[in-house]
Write a structure and sequence with these properties.
By secondary structure, the protein is α+β, with helices and mostly antiparallel strands. The protein contains four helices and 16 strands. Strand 14 and strand 15 form a beta hairpin. The protein is elongated and about 170 Å long. It holds the Pfam family PRY. Keywords: Coiled coil, Metal-binding, Zinc, Zinc-finger. InterPro entries: B30.2/SPRY (IPR001870), B30.2/SPRY_sf (IPR043136), Butyrophylin_SPRY (IPR003879), ConA-like_dom_sf (IPR013320), PRY (IPR006574), TRIM/RBCC (IPR050143), TRIM8/14/16/25/29/45/65_CC (IPR058030), Znf_B-box (IPR000315). One of its GO terms (molecular function) is zinc ion binding.
């Protein structure tokens, strides 16, 4: 780039056009070298820029201004886009705040219900235990009264026998012997007892009832949560181009099962050749999605998200950071009726098995994944 000197006012003074002088040749810079991206004078074009592509300064100026206008327009569009995104983020944050406040209020109501249920069951338990204790005390008083009566009877008989033993008259002693030798009619007390450890069964039953109340509350909350998730419901179908040769897909690409023999399928780049996997056709870059997968009565199955760049050839380790577990870690596997959850910094997903169905809720931020 040639260094520009002070403007030179030449014969075009009346056009109010200012020209700059070439520092080497002291001539007006009237051309622009496109090859070197520098302004040049007539002498420059004859020497160092002889075979270069040059245009007149005014033409280059118009081109540059056009580029600047395009850049300015692009910057305006970028500003507008960022203003829209700023407003979108602000609205999302405000909406998140409202949802959070609503969830806090809802959780407070749920906790209040649980606390009320616990307090109610505790009061019922205390009342039942006190009633049992009162029953024990009544029973003990009855038995003590009966024992007191029998003790009095036995003490009276003991006094009578003591008195007979002091008599010296043999006739009276022999006549009194048959009645005096018989023991008084009393109760057999060896099997009679007042149990003091009957509270444990009551406490266990009360805790079991409380657990039932909590489970009913959990079912209600799960139903409400499922209703909320349904607003993000999507229809996911399987992609036959990605299915392993060991898998058989239904005609509508909604069901999949394992074959006893490996099929002869085209080895396209999208297909898994070793790992028995299949991806969904749908791809998601961000947002929230919800779908339900029927896992049947299988004892083991894998379910989750994968990056579109997942390695389709060779084995998949399933370790943290590996392809199919990239978004959910080791927890992205389901066995039988397990609860499977996952979480990552840029995305999260969770699934809760209910009977033979697994509902998958995905929340993804700025990363492309396939079901």
């Amino acid at each position: 780039m040639l260094k520009l000197l002070k403007p030179y006012k030449g014969h075009k003074r009346r056009t109010k056009t200012l020209c700059h002088l070439c520092r080497h040749h002291k001539q007006p810079l009237t051309k622009f070298c496109s090859t070197d991206q520098a302004p040049v004078c007539g002498k420059c074009m004859e020497k160092g820029h002889k075979h270069h592509q040059t245009v007149c300064m005014e033409r280059e100026q118009k081109r540059v201004k056009t580029c600047l206008r395009d850049t300015k327009s692009s910057i305006k569009q970028m500003i507008c886009g960022r203003l829209r995104k700023k407003e979108e983020i602000k609205q999302s944050a405000d909406l998140s705040k409202k949802i959070t406040e609503r969830e806090i209020q809802s959780s407070a109501q749920v906790c209040s219900k649980m606390i009320a249920a616990i307090e109610r069951h505790q009061a019922d338990l205390v009342e039942e235990l006190e009633e049992k204790q009162q029953e024990v005390e009544r029973r003990a008083e009855e038995l003590i009264g009966e024992l007191t009566t029998e003790i009095g009877t036995l003490q009276a008989r003991a006094k009578e026998l003591h008195r007979l033993l002091r008599y010296q008259n043999p006739l009276y002693l022999l006549q009194s012997f048959p009645s005096a030798s018989r023991l008084p009619t009393t109760r057999e007390w060896s099997e009679v007892a007042v149990h003091s450890d009957n509270c444990m069964e009551t406490v266990t039953r009360a805790v079991s009832q409380l657990m039932n109340v909590c489970q009913e509350l959990v079912k209600k909350l799960s139903a409400e949560e499922a209703e909320k998730m349904n607003q993000y419901a999507v229809d996911v179908t399987l992609d036959p181009e990605t299915a392993s040769g060991w898998l058989i897909l239904s005609p509508d690409n909604k069901k999949v099962c394992v074959s006893s023999q490996m099929k002869n399928t085209p080895d396209n780049p999208q297909r898994f050749n070793s790992c028995v996997c299949v991806l969904g056709k749908q791809s998601f870059t961000s947002g929230r999605r919800y779908w339900v997968v029927q896992v049947g009565d299988k004892s083991e199955w894998d379910l989750g998200l994968a990056r579109e760049s997942i390695n389709r050839k060779g084995a998949i380790t399933g370790s943290p950071g590996a392809e199919i577990q990239e978004e959910m870690g080791d927890e992205g596997r389901g066995r039988g009726k397990d609860k499977v959850e996952g979480n990552r910094e840029q995305g999260s997903w969770d699934a809760l098995t209910l009977l033979n169905d697994a509902g998958v809720f995905m929340s993804l931020q700025g990363r492309r994944g396939k079901a």
